[in-house]
Amino acid sequence: MCKLDMDSKKGGTVMSFLRCTRSALGIWRLQNRIQIETSAVLPQASSVYGFVRSKNTTANHARSVDYQFSTTQWRHMVMGVLAGTGAVLVYGLYRQQVQQAEPKSITELTSLTVSARDNEVKQTYPIFTRQDVTKHKTMADGVWVTYKSGVYDITKFIDLHPGGKKIMLAAGGAIEPFWAMYAVHNQEHIYEMLEEYKIGELSPEDQKVATSDVSDPYGNEPLRHPVLKVNSLKPFNAEPPLEILSDNYLTPTEIFFKRNHLPVPEVDPKKFRLEIMGEGLTSIQLTLNDLKIKFPKHTVTATLQCAGNRRSEMNAVRQVKGLNWGMAAIGNATWTGAKLSDVLKYAGLPEDTNAKHVQFEGLDKDVSGSPYGASISIRKALAKDGDVLLAYEMNGENLSRDHGFPLRVVVPGVVGARNVKWLSKIIVSKEESKSHWQVNDYKGFSPSVDWDTVDFSTAPAIQELPIQSAITTPCNDDHISADDDEVTVKGYAWSGGGQEVIRVDVSLDGGKTWQVAELTGEKQDEGQAWAWKLWQLTVPLPKGQKNLEIICKAVDNNYNVQPDTVAPIWNLRGVLNNSWSRVKVTIEPGSG
């Protein structure tokens, strides 16, 4: 509700007019209310179905409404102009809605009445049937949607929608199924923004039908371990507590980080079919049993890391879009299955293929039926030492539902986003995947790029990840007794592309002095160091210190090193954070 500090009857009248113009002024304010929400998850952060608004809303609203004029004369004159303008805007918007609408009768047309007692706007709307709404599916006819009992004309919002024109999938129908897919819409300002486009009410008969049609796409999710730190419930995304992450070289499946973009599908393994098609191939379908019997069984130990691992540290510098991952969106496991190269050869892929990419599609789909998808280079897919698997086991057991049962692709050394779960289709192509997550997400940009200037077509999709390390114990803000003679620091280190971590340096004094940690892990062939190294350093507790700033940094066999701070690598999606890991601890006075 707009508020103006009026001290005259004329001022009160103006205030009433301004309140009546709220819906009209809302269109004028729209540009200042758009804010890209990314993610993750169409990801949440960049959801194709979301209404979002800009961080400038409050400031711009205050400047446009609450401005105090210096003299009474100017106040009355300007308010008079605003009042006249408001009346014109209201009338114009009213006429537009009446012309677009198809009300049942003339008595149901929109009316505005202002209560002289409390200056509140009481608004009644025309009644529309669901059949009326279905006639408005195009820009030419106007794009209408329903939400609960309301009818909304969102035509003018289509070109401004952050998720692109996939919003048209809801045209002429209910928007609830689309919003149920992404929890980012469950925010008050989203509903407020939608209200600015309201033109009517759904008939009582159709309201009853609408409420019975909506189901929760997340109603059949698997059980998860209660120790996980949940970053998002719908879709489910979670990571283990940092202090237990490095307790095991192989991360237990139950606490291995969960990264889902859509509802987890339930797949009958007996009915499962993997479709393989594309350039130079004979299209075939393989059962799960085919993959287990017809192809040699390979096991690879490989680390998977989310592109957004350690995003929370970027948020501390400047707000980014995406799930607020800590340092545990990474895990190490054994993966067992058929080599992708063997399966493609079986499907007839010629050695001299002109294809450049191998695309993957999952069984997890949005409400439009579009699956999660990604692609890798055919060079990686066919490399003898690439070890790309069509995996059906994780840590010696069948894949869990959260990790892609019954089949997923595992691409060692490559960002987790390309390791498509619930794999249903492989396409050999001259082009990379057209999936949103390949084309318009999971890319890095300069710190100078913001959501007003970003062009995803200018950046390549993330594939191999940079050198990474992090401290898992002690945790930030931990307390250590001065009676302790020693302090033990633990963590993990890993580098993408099969590069081996050869050293981890640790400092207890903010980087002034350094010591080399002890590394543990499996021996791996050159260029195939797919698995992380765990590291540990035990040193005497510095005497006379009240605080410690512990830092770690890793080096791989190509002498790639981590940058020391976050700010120079900050990017609007909060991906690729591999800055020095820093932990501050307090030393408490001892008993002596």
For CATH, the homologous superfamily of the largest domain is named as: Oxidoreductase, molybdopterin-binding domain
SS content category: alpha+beta
Q: How would you sum up the major sheet?
A: 6 strands, mixed
* CATH fold node name of the largest domain: Sulfite Oxidase, Chain A, domain 2
Radius of gyration: 29 Å
Ends distance: 63 Å
Strand residues, percent = 25-35%
Highest CATH level, the class of the largest domain: Alpha Beta
- Overall tally of structural domains: 3
- CATH-level-2 architecture of the largest domain: Alpha-Beta Complex
What is the number of helical segments per DSSP (H or I, 4+ residues)? 14
Average pLDDT, rounded to a whole number, is: 83
Number of strands: 30
* Relative helix content: 10-25%
Keywords: Heme, Iron, Metal-binding, Mitochondrion, Molybdenum, Oxidoreductase
Subunit structure: Homodimer.
Function: Catalyzes the oxidation of sulfite to sulfate, the terminal reaction in the oxidative degradation of sulfur-containing amino acids.
Enzyme class: oxidoreductase
Summarize the structure in words.
The longest helix is centred in the N-terminal third of the chain and has 29 residues, at 72-100. This protein is α+β, with helices and mostly antiparallel strands and 592 residues long. Strand 18 (389-394) and strand 19 (397-398) form a beta hairpin. 20% of the residues lie in helices and 26% in strands. It is globular, with a radius of gyration of 29 Å. Mean pLDDT is 83; it is low at 1-120. The protein has 3 domains: 9-213, Cytochrome b5-like heme/steroid binding domain (Flavocytochrome B2, Chain A, domain 1), CATH 3.10.120; 229-443, Alpha-Beta Complex (Sulfite Oxidase, Chain A, domain 2), CATH 3.90.420.10; 468-588, Immunoglobulin-like. The termini are far apart.
